[in-house]
Design goal:
Blueprint lengths: L6 E4 L5 E4 L7 H4 L8 H15 L9 H9 L7 H14 L3 E6 L7 E8 L6 H4 L3 H14 L6 E11 L10 H4 E11 L25 H12 L1
């Protein structure tokens, strides 16, 4: 039986590892910072990687500025909580999500959705259901009598590629993380939710909408 300390976990999930005796390296001089041995280390790494990636969305260049403005309205950093969902997704391959509300006074809402795979690979999976999923979250808020001044959805796409034959491949090369934003200001749901302290832009991935959905959405965006 191989125990922790006798193996080197590869990548971010920890699902693949190699025995210590297969790594011909002097760890005393090279160090083991390339390897993440605990979930605490993995979550910390993911939170840092996500923090950097927030400014580089795969669509709508510049929408990272909007995301930053909304995230800054929360009293604490949401990155560590988002990292937990990322780790779940990279391990089991399932979609995981969470919804966060900034507070009772002029609240904003952020939905974080994790996918395993690339944005391109997941187009067929998300097409047609993307807008319905987005508005389902808003419907839940309305049912709870929460009227956010803005609603931001962060779709995160994570991929992991590790090879036991290349145990020293850099973590940044083993893990690919992309983000995409969907954003609607509160006035979209009623004039009473209009507020000058949140961005007024609308960010939607039109490539994921059917022609019918685009037609239904057009008059709402144009108003």
């Amino acid at each position: 039986m191989t125990t922790q300390g006798e193996v080197f976990p590869l990548g971010i999930s920890g699902l693949v590892s190699v025995p210590r005796n297969r790594i011909s390296i002097d760890c005393a001089t090279t160090g083991t910072s390339q390897f993440l041995f605990t979930d605490e280390e993995r979550l910390s790494w993911l939170a840092r990687r996500l923090e950097r990636q927030l400014d580089f969305p795969v669509i709508a260049p510049g929408s990272g500025v909007i995301a930053r403005q909304i995230l800054q309205r929360f009293p604490t950093d949401l990155g560590p909580e988002f990292a937990k969902k990322l780790l779940l997704t990279v391990r089991d391959g399932e979609m995981h999500s969470m919804l966060m509300i900034s507070g009772k006074d002029k609240p904003v809402a952020v939905c974080f959705v994790c996918w395993r795979g690339s944005p391109r690979d997941l187009v067929a999976t998300r097409y047609g259901g993307y807008l319905d999923g987005f508005f389902n979250w808003i419907g839940r808020l309305n049912q709870s009598d929460i009227r956010p001044l803005a609603f931001l959805q962060i779709d995160a796409f994570i991929q992991e590629e590790v090879d036991a034959a290349e145990p020293f491949r850099l973590l940044n090369d083993c893990v690919i993380l992309d983000v995409e934003y969907t954003y609607l200001p509160g006035y979209f749901f009623g004039q009473q939710q209009a507020d000058d302290t949140v961005p007024k832009a609308v960010v939607i991935n039109l490539d994921l909408l059917s022609d019918e959905q685009k037609g239904q959405l057009a008059p709402l965006i144009a108003r």
